Amino acid sequence: MPSYLRREDLQHLSLSKIGDYIIRGCAEQDLSEVILINWQTLPEHYSDSFYQNLLKEAPDSFLVAEYFGKVVGYIMCRIEYGFSTIKRFGMGKRGHIVSIGILDEHRKKGLGTEMIQIVMRALKEGGCGEIYLEVRISNKSAIDLYDRLEFKNTSVYDNYYKDGERAFMMSRRL
Ligand SMILES: CC(C)(COP(=O)(O)OP(=O)(O)OC[C@H]1O[C@@H](n2cnc3c(N)ncnc32)[C@H](O)[C@@H]1OP(=O)(O)O)[C@@H](O)C(=O)NCCC(=O)NCCS
User: Fold this and answer.
1) Test site for ligand 1: of 76, 102, 140, most ligand atoms within 8 A of the Cβ
2) Residue ranges of domains in the chain
3) pLDDT per position as a tens digit, 11-47
4) Is the CB of 76 under 6 A from ligand 1?
5) Paired strand residues for 74
6) In this structure, which topology does domain 7-129 adopt according to CATH?
């Protein structure tokens, strides 16, 4: 999305609506709110340039959820080339959900599900054959959501997080 767009222009670029929520592509002007939401929702944080690079590299799969002009959630992805997470010895282009967070008071309204579904379509249109993510094994609400979206548990990583917690890798075909 071009960075010269004004915030109010972005409303018209809505990809989906759920009640009073708008899901749309992230713009550079949104990144400060996205970073704040990341700090409020997750223990894994990134440098400002990391967000900027993801937005440049995979703008179609970097989305925000907006509620009356305020960003309340985001999802950001990376497009990678390499060994398949599903098919043995397979190689290809795949989407990686790097981070997704919805502010507590806006959860369980379907925003996470809708944003992942939009991202899956965008990644598929961009030529990705699969999508994957890592999730803390204790993160039941996220794992339930990915299960419902037909992600399968494909690996377990010991000591994946800084505090030593294990991660499930979950993947699905697109
Ligand atoms: C994981 C997370 C992104 C899910 O976002 P969300 O917007 O609440 O997701 P949804 O609303 O689409 O789905 C959550 C649940 O609410 C339910 N739900 C959706 N719309 C609903 C509605 N209108 N009424 C009641 N329940 C609803 C869904 O069925 C789902 O149920 P499930 O837990 O049985 O699967 C969110 O909990 C979050 O930000 N967590 C903290 C950060 C995090 O853990 N990120 C993932 C790291 S891997």
Assistant:
1) 102
2) 7-129
3) 457 889 999 999 999 999 999 999 999 999 999 999 9
4) no
5) 64, 101
6) Aminopeptidase (3.40.630)
